[in-house]
Amino acid sequence: MSYASDNADALAAPARISLAEPSDFYALLKPRVMYLVILTALAGLLVAPGQMHPLLGFVSLLAIAVGAGASGALNMWYDADIDARMTRTSTRPVPAGKITAGETLAFGLILSGFSVFILGVVSNWLAAFLLAFTIGFYVLIYTMWLKRWTPQNIVIGGAAGALPPVVAYAAATGTMAIEPWVLFTIIFIWTPPHFWALALVKAAEYERAGVPMMPNAKGPDRTRTEILVYSILLAPIGVAPWLMGFASVVYGVVAIIGGGFMIAYAVNVYRVRSAELGDKAAMKLFGVSILYLFALFGLLVIERSIPILARMIGLGA
Amino acid sequence: MNIPAQNQPIVVLTPEQARARRARNIALSLTIGFLAVVFYGVTLVKLGMRVGSM
Fold first, then answer.
1. Can you give the pTM of this predicted structure?
2. Which CATH class is domain A26-176?
3. Which one of 1.20.120, 1.10.246, 2.30.30, 1.10.3470 gives the CATH number of domain A178-302?
């Protein structure tokens, strides 16, 4: 066959040319999850003793955020079939046909390798290993295995979302300590009531998509009980940074009040079980849980940043 | 005018496809430029730390 006829064939064939915009690739990174990762990782970085050079701290944080985004992209590659069946996720770039599964896989793999390598070079290889473990855990253990297999999927899989403060602490110090693991535990115990509150409302969609979330696999009553148990566990753990001396009394007061709100809204979810009011109660808890985590980690970041900023402008010791 | 076969475009982009490709190229250029600046800065900091500890 001649080159000219090859060209003619190519012109005749319906070539698949990407219409993907940069914003579609950005959406693959699950930006809202990435913002939370940036906040929790920044808290891990700031509770570490000593002071990391600001540029190295910034690049380490960027690498952790990109690593989290990469695992989000790999999740969207693998779960495109589930995403297409749920209204909440059907507009994501892969099910919407804006980016192919192959492009998403390549994007996720390249960013994963890149973020791990950069973190290793800029900070240390313990942090890089922990980031690689986090990505691997989220993609291989949560996405490919647990999510379609057990209603405990987000309990165990929540470990991946809870690891960023640990990774960041390791990036700053090259070692491990109890403080980042306390932050890990807060996020780990926070994850089930947060996700199950949403899952209570979206139970029918999860059922249709074949995902065994707690409300559709074990029933809404069992879910409400577990939400309450995890919220009661979360309240004292949220106060631990103050009790252990690495957060101020202001943090302690906010954590106590926030924990009280989490329990109060979880009790409300437990008590109100009618279809419409039950959904409202669950969505209120979902919203409060987001505020709670942002308040705790935001406060940690602010109170840890103040002395550093004061030193930088020459006000403090 | 006859264009030699090897010079003919294999695929002709629609305006929408061309616009999306241009946007992707600009985003990629900005990302690479940003990374070049960051790596330059990190190299300076790392070298400075080594010189400082000698």
1. 0.91
2. mainly alpha
3. 1.20.120
